[in-house]
Design goal:
Layout lengths: L4 E5 L6 H14 L7 E5 L5 H8 L4 E5 L16 H6 L4 E4 L2 H6 L4 H14 L2 E6 L3 H5 L3 H16 L8 E4 L13 H16 L3 H6 L1 E5 L4 H8 L6 E4 L6 H10 L2
Parallel strand pairs: 1-2, 1-8, 2-3, 3-4, 4-5, 5-6, 6-7, 7-8
Helix pairs in contact: 1-11, 5-7, 7-8, 10-11
Bound molecules: phosphoenolpyruvate.
Phosphoenolpyruvate binds next to strand 8.
Length: 250
Amino acid sequence: MRKPMVAGNWKMNGNLESIRQLMDGLKAGVDSVESAEVVVCPPFIYVPKVVGMCDGTKIQAGAQNLCDQNSGAFTGEVSGEMIKDVGCQIVLVGHSERRSIYGETDEAVADKFAKAQELGLKPILCVGELLEERENNITEEVVGRQLDAVINKSGIQALANSVVAYEPVWAIGTGKTASPEQAQEVHAFIRSKIASLDAGIADGLQLLYGGSVKSGNATELFSQADIDGGLIGGASLDATEFLAICKAAK
Ligand code: PEP
């Protein structure tokens, strides 16, 4: 039985005061989340603070990105070692905003995934198609290519200690959610693709859906056979809303 996970991606939002309030709200309600692993991914500069706030709770803090190098002349970058050093064990890799705004290619994402794995961090690998790609019926080709880049570099075994998040780019931050059937179709594709290489890894893999998930649509999405929780952007900035989504993941 796969344990569900709900991860909040705060993106570049918040300040010390709003984060304190958000974490107070989450800490006050998180014990009523029965099944799901609860993760929050703050902007880098707040990660150590949030790690401290998570102490003694069942909330885990993660990072939103990492550098594929260990240290050195990489101004503005943050290494996986540093993420680990401040007490994080989880990191998002290949979020669509990293791919589209910062030009991260499938290969660059695969390098970051490999680095996270090498360091013992658990990567949440984000994959998903653009609207145009869906309209051209190449969703599976695109998602398959994004997965292959990682599998070709790190091997199928590397997926054993990772999470995959399917996030159709057209549904991120747009208020347009994939229908439960559309999401399930791609999740089933991802699981069967991985199963063709290793059935055990596919069976144990937590597959999250992301893209305008809210408390009002979470239950239906999470009830799909291959959806094991969610990666939540906007709605993770509201403690009541995020907790309601976490509770929907059973
Ligand atoms: C995300 O940032 O990964 C995301 C899914 O955002 P939203 O929930 O706001 O669509």
